[in-house]
Structure formats: C-alpha cells, structure tokens
Amino acid sequence: MAVAFATPTPAGTRTLAASLDMASPPEAAFGLLTSVEKWPVWLSFVRSAHLVSSAPLGLGSEILLRSALPGESEQLYEVDAFIPNFHLSLVGAYSIRRRLDFRIEQKTSRSKLHVAVAYPAYHGRMGYLLDGVVNGRKLASSLDHALEHFRGLIEVRAESDHLLDDL
Can you tell me the distance from the alpha carbon of 55 to that of 124, in angstroms, rounded to the nearest whole number? Predict the structure, then answer.
C-alpha cells in the first residue's frame, strides 16, 4: 500500500507526498516515468500530458499538463532536475510553488518510488486550511491510488516479460 502524507512546506504552498515499494528494478520504473504521454493512465489527477518539443525528455524540457490540481487546469512545467533512473523534477513555468517531484531508490532487486506534488494555496492560513479540507484529502487519496496503479503497471510488465521466456 502506498503511504500518502502531507509534508511541512513554505507558507502558501500545500505539498502532498507518497512512497511505494515495488518489485522491479529502477530502470523499468523510470522508463514509465519518462513516458510523459502515459501519465494520465496511472496518475489519476492528470488529464493530459505531452512534451512541448519533440526532443527527448531531459533537463530544460517543457511539459504541458492538464490536471485537477487547484488553479488553472492547464499548466506549463519545466524539467529542473533529471538524473537517469533516479530523479525527475518539474517546476511550474509561471509559479515556482507548483512542483512535481519523482525519486526512485534502488533496494536490491526492489525499488522505492517517492512522489511529491506541491501547489499554491492562496488566501492565508484560512485558505490553506480550507484547501486541506476541500482538495487535500481528495488529492492525497488520488495520489495513493495512482501509485498503486503505477506498481501494478510495472510489476505486470515485468511478469509478462518473463512469461515469454519459455516461447
């Protein structure tokens, strides 16, 4: 089961984070992470995602996301950290308080995925508290389900590769 939790953040920013253990190598998990067009399949609060340029995903790449995160439904993000098979971080092009951060740790033949989603919560402390009630729980649940779905996609793909070994 994925563990979703809220983390302390700078004022006016709500951050949700979750972690998940997977029975797959980090290369397989990172391969699915870098397939930006497939994000809506497993990341349930993302409606659509695509690279703005035709270049491969890397540092400085721009990604246009349509999501259910509070704020405008369509946001432009830029890759601000990219370490192959370990770290992918996106920051909002127009708001540095918008961030998606993916990290993968290798643990022998298993790996662990850490995801953090940050977005601005406006209108001071009351707005922050209201956002936690209105959006926070729903997004935390959505993130939890998304990671479970991610694990299923990765582990089924690994098993199907081994099913074809006998043929």
Answer: 40
State the Cα–Cα distance between residues 42 and 78, nearest whole angstrom: 20
Q: How far apart are CA 60 and CA 93, in angstroms?
A: 11
Q: Write the CATH number for 139.
A: 3.30.530.20
SS3 18: strand
Counted domains in the chain: 1
pTM: 0.82
Cβ–Cβ under 8 Å, residues 111 and 22: yes
Q: Are 97 and 13 in contact (CB under 8 A)?
A: yes
Residue whose C-alpha is closest to residue 135's, from 157, 154, 120: 120
**For residue 90, what pLDDT band results from cuts at 50, 70 and 90?**
very high
- Please report, for residues 56, 73, 146, the alpha-carbon distance to residue 39 in angstroms, rounded to integers and kept in the order given: 16, 16, 10
Q: Report the distance separating Cα 49 and Cα 63, nearest Å.
A: 7
